[in-house]
Specification:
Chain lengths: 485, 143
């Protein structure tokens, strides 16, 4: 679809829709993208990002990242910062899969050592990290333990022996959204999630074995600081979230907000999926505390998956994981709201930043970064499609206007059904194997849906983030093995 | 139970349109559309277990929303894939009430070719309307 005529080009990679574009817009909408990416964006992006610009208490801009596409409520790639005093919190601005995120770990292994064992590794990972519809984890928690995990996050994993101390340091928020209160989540949510710890889920969730080839390292010094020191070094990247538990928390509060939003608080929204409550209200605060439980569940989920990865590599290579050097690079969240301090009109202000399918990308020196990354800026993990490769980047000071946020993936351009009509999963698997990528999936259809051509080109998305000053490239990672939910 | 998937909406997720001559029929069509995202060949689900569902809501469309959410909940919490056996929707002055008998079986990847997990039913473009041909519902499922 042609881009809206009101869309004004602010710079090479920043586009703006003014407040006059739609009745009720409180701030302009900003889209970060190259001309090509903007031309390819679906109409949903422009409509949704301007709906977000109407939410009470929004400051500066409603933003959309270069991988933006049609979501529900917010566009995927949507960012909105609300004044914590006058603004709202919206479950639709966070998403159902609360704290869906990415984790990257390096190894001391190289391609030459891993390649001959790739099938063995992928098959073992496929068994040890259950995926697909309704899958349950190998870890059996009772409901009481699950509630503890919801409030403690990754610290719970450390206590139970599923984490190394440095894993906690290298997870966003140190693996725990403080203030999580499990009394604010429903029994239904607990029932949906307590047996899903250590599972991948389905859709675009995956776990991938990757290699950093020397020609794909763009910033050697930062790569070294992030743990990439060997030629052809092998890394493991995975993407998953808070599973059925988080989905139910979001569903519960979406329903509860709809009941009070207009009658009690006089808030009107342009899409029911944007249901909101004042952040300072009882309903807003209850969701905030429940959302934190879901965010913590996702940290626990990814931490237990890392534990499984260490077990699998250790079993296949017959060496302890410490000896194989399976160390965290970082864990980033995608679907969250967080209280952060940003400069608005020259004044430092406390804001509730909603990021839906977008990655926080703090610059060097920013409070909240682990000591290890104070000089480099925050590692940013951008997953590409399973066929094309992914990127490791670093946060930049120039990302200020976007509340230090960058893209989260390549962004879909083709619907799932369209992709299934275009590709056959079994054929795709053989073609990928011939190109050196061994992939396992619980479903052929699911594999076809994730075909590389169903996504924007990750290289273009990443170039756009760099050109817009949101994050800079450190290295590119090429897949050699993949398990897909 | 007629339904079709809408490719042009919400690229990363799945949108569908379900239709029916009566409210009960459109609810059952929407349930089938949701089920068919999660597994192929829903007609192969055997009637091994029964679940009774009772729901109330002031609004018709939100009653459908609650009903579809119930199916998503059963999939995760009970590992159950269910189809509608019978359903009765009553409209009164205070709103609507639904009583449904659902039947199905536990999810078995060896038997049911898996599709994509439905995380949630979204309210984006969610609608339930009546025209001269009967009822029509549109929903976007988060995948």
């Amino acid at each position: 679809m042609p881009k809206p005529s009101a869309l004004r080009r602010v710079s090479e990679t920043i586009w703006e829709l003014p407040r006059s574009y739609k009745d009720g817009m409180l701030v302009p909408a900003r889209i970060y993208a190259t001309e090509k990416l903007v031309e390819e964006m679906d109409e949903g992006v422009f409509n949704q990002v301007t709906n977000v610009a109407c939410l009470p208490g929004i400051v500066k801009y409603a933003c959309c990242m270069p991988d933006g596409h049609w979501g529900y409520g917010f566009p995927i790639g949507g960012v909105a910062a609300m004044d914590t005093g006058k603004g709202v919190i919206s479950p639709g601005g966070i998403g159902f899969d609360i704290n869906c995120g990415m984790r990257l770990a390096v190894t001391d292994l190289t391609l030459g050592e891993v390649k001959p064992r790739i099938k063995e590794l992928v098959d073992a990972l496929f068994y040890r990290i259950p995926s697909g519809v309704g899958s349950t984890g190998l870890l059996r928690l009772d409901r009481h333990e699950f509630r503890e995990a919801l409030e403690e996050g990754s610290r719970w994993c450390l206590r139970k022996g599923y984490a190394w101390p440095e894993d906690i340091e290298l997870t966003e928020e140190r693996g725990c959204f403080e203030g999580a209160d499990s009394s604010k989540v429903s029994e239904k949510a607990i029932e949906r999630g307590f047996d899903q710890v250590g599972t991948l889920g389905s859709g675009n969730h995956y776990c991938e074995i990757q290699v950093a080839r020397p020609e794909n390292v763009f910033d050697e010094e930062t790569a070294r600081a992030f743990g990439f020191t060997l030629p052809d070094q092998v890394a493991i990247m995975f993407h998953c979230g808070s599973r059925g538990f988080g989905h139910q928390v979001a569903t519960d509060y979406l329903q509860s907000f709809l009941k009070v939003m207009e009658p009690k608080y006089g808030i009107k929204v342009l899409d029911r999926e944007l249901a909101s409550a004042p952040f300072s209200s009882r309903e807003g605060q209850d969701y905030w505390k429940a959302m934190k439980c879901a965010a913590n569940m996702a940290f626990v989920n990814r931490q237990v998956i890392l534990h499984r990865i260490r077990e699998v590599f250790s079993a296949v290579f017959g060496r302890p994981p410490e000896d194989l050097g399976i160390r965290m690079v970082y864990d980033v969240t995608h679907n969250t709201a967080k209280v952060e301090r940003h400069t608005v009109n020259g004044k430092e202000t406390e804001l509730l930043v909603h990021r839906k399918g977008a990655t926080r990308a703090f610059p060097p020196g920013m409070k909240g970064l682990p000591e290890k990354y104070m000089q480099t800026g925050q590692p940013v993990i951008i997953g590409g499609s399973m066929e094309t490769g992914s990127y490791l980047l670093a946060g930049l000071g120039t990302g200020k206007e976007a509340f230090y946020t960058t893209a989260h993936g390549s962004g879909r351009t083709m619907s799932r059904h369209h992709a299934k009509r275009m590709y056959r999963g079994s054929k795709l698997q053989h073609e990928m194997e011939a190109r050196g990528i061994y992939v396992r999936s619980v479903t052929w259809g699911g594999l076809a849906e994730e075909a590389g051509a169903a996504y924007k080109k990750v290289d273009e998305v990443v170039e756009a983030t760099e050109s817009a000053g949101l994050s800079k490239r450190v290295l590119r990672l090429i897949p050699i093995g993949n398990i897909k939910g | 139970m007629p339904y079709r998937y809408l490719d042009e909406i919400a690229t990363a997720d799945v949108a569908f349109e379900a239709t029916g001559k009566s409210l009960e029929e459109v609810f059952a069509s929407a349930a089938e559309a949701t089920l068919n995202v999660m597994i192929d060949e829903p007609e192969r689900i055997e009637k091994k277990e029964r679940v009774s569902v009772k729901l109330e809501n002031r609004d018709r469309d939100m009653l459908l929303y609650d009903f579809l959410n119930e199916l998503v909940y059963l999939k995760d919490a009970k590992k159950l894939l269910v189809r509608v056996e019978s359903m009765d929707i009553k409209e009164g002055a205070d709103g609507l009430s639904l009583e449904a008998e659902l039947s199905g079986e536990e999810l078995d990847p060896a038997k049911h070719p898996l599709g994509a997990d439905v995380k949630a039913v979204t309210l984006h473009m969610f609608s339930l309307e009546k025209d001269e041909n009967g009822w029509r519902a549109v929903a976007v499922l988060d995948i």
